[in-house]
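Each record in this resource describes a single protein on a pair of labelled lines. With that in mind, the following record should read easily:

===
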Amino acid sequence: MLKTKVTILVLLAFSMQSVWAQKPAKPTSVEIYNQIQKLNFLGSVLYIAAHPDDENTRLISYLANDKKARTAYLSLTRGDGGQNLIGPQLRELLGVIRTQELLEARKIDGGEQLFSRANDFGFSKNPDETLSIWDKQQVLSDVVWAIRKFQPDVIINRFDHRSPGTTHGHHTSSAILSVESFNLANDPAVFPEQLKYVKPWQAKRQFFNTSWWFYGSQEKFDAADKTKLTTLKTGTYYTNLGKSNQEIAALSRSSHQSQGFGSSGSRGEDVDYLELLNGDPLSNKENIFEGIDTSWNRVAGGKAIGDFISKIAMQYDF
């Protein structure tokens, strides 16, 4: 009995030492102020793609830091089917590395990170092959779960669900599953076993984050009619941070070291384009949250909280 008690005390001592050894967070006055502002914006966005490094860090940073929206990236795989430019680790061990790279990227750009169980098995020529190897129903349930748990107002796809055979099958599959999940997530008859832990959820809008890459060249994209696209000016310069949105995004993307990414970023005007796929059309093509209550009024009894946070922000002493 005494031996058991001694063992427990030793284990507790080691666990407490482990806790004390953690580096404490020391936010600056600017970081605290930005967190207060973010606390008063209840809008949310879920960005969906296939692999680590598929995410648009410029857009994630803009949504998280400029709009103050709660923003997450759902990477369906952990990238274990790719190459590794920094070491010999491949397959599962590479997946561990790329998982950590994504987590580090989100610490920089202000987003959150989610995953599904999809297996990155290397290059796939079309989504039919991908979804048969992934087990479509399993990964579809993961996407529905992510939507129900995160409860995004807006979903943004990195890839086009209408382009099978023109890009990596994993890419197209991520968009196909996202589009299918848009309404399925709000259907209680779909994956009902999840409802013990989460509730059905209906996002308000879904977009495709298009760019020149999907048009074949920058010249073709420049010449294309963009009047129906939503345009987000993502070239914000954050004076209190001394960084542009592009510089934050570049630092975030540079976290993908095993893939050889690295950039110093830039400053100046920048635009991201979104094509509406589902949900209510926008009259203001620069506001993806149009018609969505992003204040504390959306929470029962929440107005007083919003007023209090606004007062704290107004009286904040740096």
About this structure: The longest helix spans residues 2-20. The mean pLDDT is 92.
